[in-house]
C-alpha cells in the first residue's frame, strides 16, 4: 500500500460509504459521478483492496471498507472540529438555516422563533419532514437541511440525535359531544367514530403507535395527514381523535374541543433533534441546536 494516501480520496470514500451511492456522493461533494468513481478507483489501487461491490442497483461496502471507515471517521471529525474552532460562528453572521420538522414541532417552534431575539442576523426556515426516514436522512447527508426534528430515534451510524422535548397523547372531542363529557371509558372509545392520523414512519394510526396496548378495530370516519385538519373535523362532528398534548392545549379553545385522558395507557411522544455527525462539532450547527432547545424549554 502507498504510504502517501491522498486525504481527498479518503473524504470521497467516506461520503460514498455513508450514502451507499456514487450518485448521491457526487451530489453531496459537488463532483461528477465519473470523478467520484475515479477517486474510488485510485484509492483502491493505492490500498490494494476492493472497497465496494455491486449489489443489485447499488453498492455495498466490503469488510475492508467497513474497517477503514471506522478507523478514519474519528480523525475526520476531529479535523472538522479543528476547522470549526478556527472559523468561529456567531449569530451576528448572516446565515439561513434549514430545519426539517413535523407538524407539531412547526406549530410550536415557528412562533417562538419569530418572537425570539436570540437569532441576531440568522434566519431559520422550517420545512416539512419527508414522508420516509430514508429521504430525511438523505437531505441531512446532502446538506440540504441542517437539522431535522421528528419523533423516535433514527437508524444509521452517520447520524446523531438528542431529545428536544416529550409530551403525552390526548383524546379530543367536541365540547358539544352528545355522549362524551369530561371522561371517556374504553367501551365508549370503541363505540364512537374516529378521525385518525397516520404516523409517517410506521404506517400505523397515532393511537396504535403510542399505546402500550393492542387496540381493537375502530369505526374510522376519516383519515387525515394534518393534525390541525383532524382537529377541525372533530370540532364539527361527533367523532373522537388522538392527538398531541401540546397542540390540543394550544388549539382546544379555538376549535371548541374537550381534551381528555385516553382510556388506555400511552407512551410518551419524544421529539428528537437529528443531525449528520459531520456537523457534530460545527459551531453553527451547535448554536442552532442549542438555540432551538433554549426556545422550546423557555
From TrEMBL:
Gene3D superfamilies in alphabetical order: Periplasmic binding protein-like II, Winged helix-like DNA-binding domain superfamily/Winged helix DNA-binding domain
CDD domains referenced in this protein's UniProt entry, alphabetically: PBP2_LeuO
Keywords assigned: DNA-binding, Transcription, Transcription regulation
Pfam families membership: HTH_1 (PF00126), LysR_substrate (PF03466)
Any GO molecular function: DNA-binding transcription factor activity
Lineage: superkingdom: Bacteria
Residue ranges annotated for the HTH lysR-type domain, each copy included: 5-62
Family of the protein in this entry: Belongs to the LysR transcriptional regulatory family.
Name of the featured protein: LysR family transcriptional regulator
Source organism of the structure: Enterovibrio norvegicus FF-454
